[in-house]
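FAQ
Q: What does a multi-component entry look like?
A: The components come first, one per line:
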Amino acid sequence: MTAISFQAKRINLKEKVFKKTLTLSAIIVVVILMAIFFTLLINSMPSIKALGTKFFYDKTWDPVADEYGALPFLVGTLLTSFLALVISTPFSIAVAIFLGEYYKKGIVAEIFKNVIDLLAGIPSVIYGFWGLIVLVPIVRMIEMKLNLPPYGVGIFTSSVILAIMVLPFSVSLSRQVISMVPAHLKEAAYSLGATRFEVITKIIIPYTKSGLFAGLLLALGRALGETMAVTMLIGNTHEIPTGIFSPGNTMASVIANEFSEATGEIYTSALIEMGLFLFVVATIINILGKQVIKRFTIS
Amino acid sequence: MEMILKQNKIMKNKLLVDLQIEKQIVRRNKKNKIFKGIIIAGTVISTLPLLLILFYIFKQGITAINWDFFTNLPKPVGETGGGVANALVGSILILLVSCVLAIPIGIIIGIYLSEVAKSRLAYYSRLAVDVLQGIPSIVIGIIIYEWIVRPMGGFSAFSGSVALALMMLPSIVKSTEETLKLLPESLKEASLALGVPYYKTILKIIVPTGLGGIMTGIILSISRVIGETAPLLFTAFGNPFMSTNIFKPISSLPLIIFNYATSPYNDWHQLAWGASMLLILMILILNIITKIVQRKWKVQF
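Then the predicted structure of the entire assembly, as tokens:
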């Protein structure tokens, strides 16, 4: 009798410990996230205090003269990301329609699905290396034809690589929402004599609009924070890019290039402030995208 | 007479309308076909980069890979026979430590989220995992630098592992949560009804049943971080010598690719191609293992 009750007590204790561990672990993630935010915030305080909003509109980044204006990098980041989206969107929608509507099942679908998955699996640094060896000479040739200075590296080159890199992310979401369009809507349109083209442009795309937009947002979030490939291809100058073929720099690549060599409190802090900016923007985009998807799946 | 003329006119008009409809149908069908062609062309073009990248890496990499490549350390420019032994060992060591850190916590959080699906804490915890997944990898690098490298006074393999573990965590949590959610409630109830304590039910019944899905998530997360470079730049940092001390700087395959790819020397480019091929092969193999695990241990209910 006492042996059994003793055992029951031990089990009860284990039960409590187990449940506590589960709850604790769930708390830990929240704590980690908060800690990340506050670490970034506290460490960028010196720069925020010293520079204020000038940080975002000052054009000169000159650590030697102790001047830290992040405008060139802000412009570079936005330009590369949006250009990448412009290049990749037509293709990602084509692939999404291909996999979500034309070839939902079967061997063709399997092959293309795996290819797109693999595209997402290739490391950023390998994209950068390949771009450096293969893409840069091609861009240089185009620049010579256009009578531009033949840098080869620059905003355009990075955008092309980014476009390839973010494609799988927008495809995976867009494909899902396209295949979620209710069959009765499509069948009704077919029974009225609509062609497939008309079903896609008049039923599927209007119906999935918000989902497709969420796919774009997630791809944008990826593109903004992408570091290695861009660092290798953008040219790393500290001037504001004058056109899409000129070299530039993004926030992520400035951090990658200068963080481990940064000396001086404000220099390091300014780099961390860029990290904070990337973190906040990526988080907002992420939550916004998730919200759009949630609303879509509920409706 | 007039009647017949009128009827003729109506017939003519009808024919004309028919002809127009016919034309319209032909036009619409043509549009339909052209559109399908555009979609297929767009899809094929989208897959071209992958084929080109794989082709280039294998073409260049295959000549770089030989016995020396696996056993030697990198050599200065001009000397042949350099290898990436230190980077290979470094990559494996970093990954092992990050697996030890990320897998248990990831699975536990996943269990919590699937068991307590609707509490407020679960909501925030899920949100945190989502946000964590979206953090740019370079920001993770900064964070770990501030958390570990600066207090410990130097770059270390361990800090690199923590950075990668932080990046692995979200996908392990999500795959665990999603797999366990698919399991039927009756499974748990049957076990509880037999008097099995809750913790044993979870650890001995629920988790083993969903092991296939959990494993898939773990392997996928490894294949995703194996090529991460940005978070290692200010944590593991790189090391030209062989090192197995996790509290010292260490090299890794992605770091070596970055350093050699951006160098102007052909010999080093060659090493970078070899390392790229090795990395891609590892990722391919991990992906194939995932597919096999998925097929073999499919949760059947």
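Q: Is there any commentary attached?
A: Sometimes. For this entry: Residues 2-64 of chain B form the longest helix (63 residues).
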